[in-house]
Amino acid sequence: MNYYQEVTLIDGDKKLYELWSDVYNQIHIALAEAKNKHDINTIGVSFPSYRYEEKGYKVFATLGDKLRVFAQSQKDLETLDLDKWLERLTDYVHVKRINEVGDKAKGHVVIRRYRHKNVLKQAEAFAEHKGITLEAALIHCAKHKQDNKPYPYINLRSISNNQPYALSIIQEMADNETQGSFNSYGINNLADKVTVPHW
Predict the structure, then answer these.
(1) Element (H, E) at 78
(2) Is beta strand 51-55 parallel, antiparallel or unpaired with respect to 93-95?
(3) Which pTM does this prediction carry?
(4) Band of the pLDDT at 38, cuts 50, 70, 90?
């Protein structure tokens, strides 16, 4: 990733979690349009102030107040046109101009969507996979169940059916840079490990 644009959310009249919802809804629509109209699916995002820490029984989880949007070329970011998509939020966000990454990166991160796992759905899938009864699968899954993690999330609303949902975000350091495509949230699906620069 050679170019980036940074968006800072300004906490004030609106709380940060409300701003994330407003901003990310627009980012999601912009990325979907870039993919559908311009065949651009290599724009990724990162959260420079992201933190997720578990200490004992306490968890600290935050996305922070910044978003970086990355692309291979300046043209891709110009096509995305964040200024246009975030125009109605100018009182709440500061969008910097497009810059080169250059030597700023101190490493790379993978950003993925985390989906909370429903035990019944897990058991149904396990029963089908192993060819066992649902009851046996439920017993197995209850015994080996991992707790859902309270990763930082953004409340969004589906454009197709207007249902609310949480976009939970995992951001982790990566050993190596990996290029590829991103989904319409600018992140990886659960199994993918495409990276963006981090500093």
Answers:
(1) helix 74-80
(2) unpaired
(3) 0.83
(4) very high
